[in-house]
Amino acid sequence: MHVSAIIAAGGRGRRLGAGVPKQLLDLGGRPMLQWSLDAFRSCGRIADLIVVVPPEWIDAPPACLRDERLRLVPGGRRRQDSVANGFAAVPETADVVLIHDAARPLVDTATIEAAIDAAAEAGAAIVALPARDTIKWSPGGATAAAGSPAGDAARTVERTLPREFVYLAQTPQAFRREVLRAAVQLGLSGVEATDEAALAEQAGHAVRLVAGSVRNIKVTTADDLVIAEALVNAQASGAGARAVGSPGQPTFRIGSGYDLHRFAEGRRLVLGGVEIPYDRGLSGHSDADALCHAVTDAVLGAVSLGDIGAHFPDTDERWRGASSVAMLRHAVALAAGQGFRLVNVDATIVAERPTFGPHRAAIVASLARALDLAESAVSVKAKTNEGVDATGRGEALAVHAIALLRRDG
Ligand code: MG
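Above: the input entities. Below: the structure tokens describing the complete assembly.
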């Protein structure tokens, strides 16, 4: 699944600090915008990160946006114009697009991932919090001026809404690409809305609710900034999210894997599921894909499920000649059975020859597909062994791999 994210940071609000744009105000030692960037970058499933910024930042971005992986686009007059500009930068291949407001710096990756999954299934999803206060309805609304007889009359409760049906929308909001396209077109046609989900609703799409967090506050006033600072400090001091009623913390597990195969005549050289042209291949069981084997062991190791030999023994006819990609997928499925999914994978191939540079992108793409990870969460490096030992003499190829998995609390 190809997931793109748009972070809306195009506002010019300076009311919270003297001369500093709101999105660059300091929060726990980092600019507020950077908190959102870090949350989305640490979510391994997001392939593209598009940031909508004030137009003057395009040529002179602040330090936290000087990252070549980010795509900066200029904001527009209204929120929906800004989102439309961001949407225009989303690749055609995107399946799901997230929109997040940079004024919500304390979003967490579990929430982002829940929004992705809900949108993939339902078409559109928003993170939202059940109302805890009693909700009053006044037809005069916030525009009715206090002090004047007409204004005071309008500032009267007409009725009390049943709280159990009321949700407070947060971000991210997530959409299948075609649903967001319909919402964006409606916004550009002149329909006013305070969020994209409202436009998707008006375009006739169902919008699913995903559990939000009280930590995911919107920083609009100076008081909000004080609360955000307190939440950051509570987290740093170990008070943790539980103290304010969020679900438990995620569990992270790390695993390492290693494999080595001898080179042999008359064999194909397959690494990460990609056949690499070379005059020799690797000998061994199945296709001898040492990269897949090392990553498989890293995944199994992270969840303490033994090693590749235990799950795919040489004696098992089921796996004879099988693609090692299939074994890797099986290991990922075993981990998923324990509630774990991959965050990222890093591997190093050790071989004197062939040269892997020209094949690296294809290998990363293939591994990312097998692992259902964004390519940005898959790293494959290669080095020689300086002529030393079996790998250095070109007799064998070795792979070291490490994998990080998470289970949400
Ligand atoms: Mg092996």
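Note for the figure: The chain has twelve helices and 18 strands.
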